[in-house]
Amino acid sequence: MAENLQHEDFGEKIGGAKKDLWKDRGLYVDDLGAMNEREAEKFVKKDNVWKKPDYQAMLDDGVPLGVVYFIKKARDSLGASPQYRYSDKTPELRRARQEEYIETVRQLQAVIEDVRTLDDAMQAYDRFLIQNGYVEQVQGWASGTHYRATKKSLDNPVITNKLVQALHIRSASHFDRDFTQKAQQEQFGVSKDQKMPKGYAIHFNDGKNTYSRNNDWKPGTYYVTKGYSILQTNLESREAALKWVQDFARQRSKGGKVRFTPPQLAHVRRTGPDYRSGQEITGQHYLDTFGFRGGEFGNWMNQNDRQTSLNMGFEALKDLASALKISDKDIAYQGTLAIAFGARGSGNAAAHYEPLRTVINLTKMHGAGSLAHEWWHGLDDYLGTKMRAKGMLSEQPHLYAPFQKLIDTMKYKPETPEQAAKRTEAQTERTRKNAASWLDSSVLASLKRYGNEEQMETYAVLREAFLSGEPGSVGQISAFKKNVTGRVIPKSERERLENFERMLSRMQAQEAPQIGRTETDFYRNSVRMGKECEKDGGYWDSNVEMTARAFACYIKDKLPYTSDYLAGHADCALTLVSGKDGEMEVLKAFPVGEERRAINAVFDEIIQDLKREQLLTHADVTLPLSVSELREAADGQLSMFGVGRPSVMDQLAANRPADKKSPAQTIFRKNHEPEI
Q1: Among 197, 202, 172, 176, CA closest to 187
Q2: Residue 258 forms part of a structural domain
Q3: Residue 600 — pLDDT band, cuts 50, 70, 90?
Q4: How many helices and strands (H and E) does the chain possess?
Q5: ∠ at Cα 391 (548, 388), nearest 5°?
Q6: Which of 546, 609, 292, 280 is nearest to 409 (CA)?
Q7: Which domain holds residue 130?
């Protein structure tokens, strides 16, 4: 392929990419026109409309501490997102509420951004609430002038009591107490390295009114307290005391989760067939072969990066079609999927799927290895739409029986006979303990009062018979109690004890414990992964993420060769944790062994069922790219054979084996550009 081939975004414009959005300037009402319903619901947030101000820069510019704190509190008093009324059920009404939210936030922003002094802060109430018609002054007969909310304010969910109170400054002293002093108490504007941990305090020992048991508390030093407890003394300076308390608090912190980032593959290996037929891939191939809706590149990806991504992505998607034995067109879910290379990512994520725009993004540096994982997210979303789920189908698996089976297989497995025996023994012991407690509470107190030593021994024998599940033992104990105390066991208590008697009898009669189910290692490890690593809150053990990780493993196992760009990250969700014995162990949040084989079998069933339902198309063979599709013109430009009939020599040359190196042989140079 010619060196001057330029790769640009192809197909339908995807929209919503970071390079196209309002990320820097903030969101305006006009921006809603380019958003669909799902995007508007996600993006219309306070932080997207009114970017968080640089409070430290204001302080550095000489704005008083209390004024900067007032600005923060005014912004904080706004709701994080639009508040919808019960009647806002239609897309049109919700869109109108979103526009109202943006407009109101912008009005407040315009007022607050002009605040630089105490006088400015005291005028903010009138400038925002009165001048915009949210509050009106009313003249009373006796109480003088007072403020009253207007209908415009009552109809606007953004105008809340919290916002009104934040803006209402009654006097300079009120401002000093509620803003300046509170800012000092909260250490607002104090740099992180100078901030005192919450709950701790540093004091100076002047040598007066101090006592130590060994007379070793030196005057002229600093000491640290928490509550009424003195934690450390004899610190030479306040800086030394601050460092000590920061280190101490950090050690006591309950946080400190490990950041999990999928590793960047050092070498992207592939040993499969040459589906490219030696050609360099273009965006048009993605449109023609797979039926992608469109594709785009990040602005900072050079042409070499784009070509490499196109080549490796094409082969990986062909590998995916081969592993699943599906049509190439199924890869893009019949023309509904888009793809992006290094265009829409952020942070440390290797890749992500955007349900709002049905697009898979693979980052430049870490994207290789995650394509199968993200493709499953897309299929999960696509099937959710087909099955009328609210979101991903894996979040509502009951709508599709094979998905429910997948979730059950991922999370649970049959017990071993040993596990069943241990569980049954524990259940029996708990039942015996509860039964003994109820029996003693019904009988023992009165027996101790009226019975003798011999009668207590008789009760012990009857009690053991009851705990062994002997039929009629409750009746015998009741008769025995009447003999000794003159009273039987009350009816309600006797019925409860008879229930225990029947339960214990069944347990004793059971020859072998019934095999139940227990949690899989995959599920337990995923739950623990959420406790050890960032992205917790149900991320690691969610149906959405567990199915995607399992699918990547399934694809890796289905392929008879290596395809790192497709599934190189399949077995990378692991971290080192401390076990119960204190020894370090590897925690794997992906299926292995027999659990993996069982899950793979269910994936087989799902793919076959989707083919029967004609949601996927069976294809026994995945064909390589035809060598006659593209030719290189004499001037180095691409041309289609349809433009002019090729000569016989051209046809022979086209069918000659390519001399170009495959991706597996290509040496990739490290790129040190930062990730977006």
Answers
A1: 197
A2: no
A3: very high
A4: 24, 16
A5: 115
A6: 546
A7: 35-185
From 252, 271, 300, the end of a domain falls on 252
Q: Residue 308: is its pLDDT beyond 50?
A: yes
Tell me if 262 is assigned to some domain: no
Hey, what's the torsion of the CAs at 305, 307, 310, 312, to 10 degrees? Answer: -80
Record the tokens describing residue 619, joined without a space: 């294809």
How buried is 325 (Cβ within 10 angstroms: 0-12 exposed, 13-18 middle, 19+ buried)? Answer: middle
- Helix orientation angle between 543-558 and 303-324, rounded to the nearest 10 degrees: 80
The pLDDT mean for the chain works out to 82
Is 667 a residue whose pLDDT tops 50?
Answer: no
Kindly indicate the confidence band of residue 365, based on its pLDDT and cuts at 50, 70 and 90: low
Q: DSSP of 386-442, one letter per residue?
A: HTT-SS-GGGSGGGSHHHHHHHHHHHEEEPPHHHHHHHHHHHHHHHHHHHHHHHHHH
**Cα distance between residue 456 and residue 473, in whole Å:** 16
Q: Is 522 exposed, middle or buried (0-12, 13-18, 19+ CB in 10 A)?
A: buried
Whole-number Å distance between alpha carbons of 483 and 447: 10
525 and 498 in a common domain:
no
Mark whether 48 and 164 lie in a shared domain.
yes
Helix pair angle (65-76, 91-112), 10° resolution: 170
Are 178 and 171 in contact by the 8 Å Cβ rule? The answer is no
Indicate whether 457 and 543 sit together in one domain: no
pLDDT tops 50 at residue 590: yes
Contact of 597 with 558, CB cutoff 8 Å: no
Q: Is the pLDDT of residue 369 over 50?
A: yes
**Residue where a domain stops, chosen among 152, 185, 218:** 185
Domain co-membership, 533 together with 409? yes
Widest Cα–Cα separation across the chain? 117
pLDDT at 429: 87
Q: Could you give the angle at the alpha carbon of 40 between the alpha carbons of 34 and 41, nearest 5°?
A: 165
The model's confidence at residue 143, banded by pLDDT at 50, 70 and 90, is low
Residues 581 and 599 in one domain: yes
123 and 216 co-located in one domain: no
Confirm whether 24 is domain-assigned. no
pTM over 0.85: no
State how far the Cα of 476 lies from the Cα of 208, in Å rounded to an integer: 77
Chain segment 398-443, per-residue pLDDT in tens: 999 999 999 999 999 887 778 767 877 888 888 889 999 999 888 8
DSSP string of 120-157, one letter each residue:
HHHHHHIIIIITTTSEEEEE-SSS-EEEEE-HHHHT-T
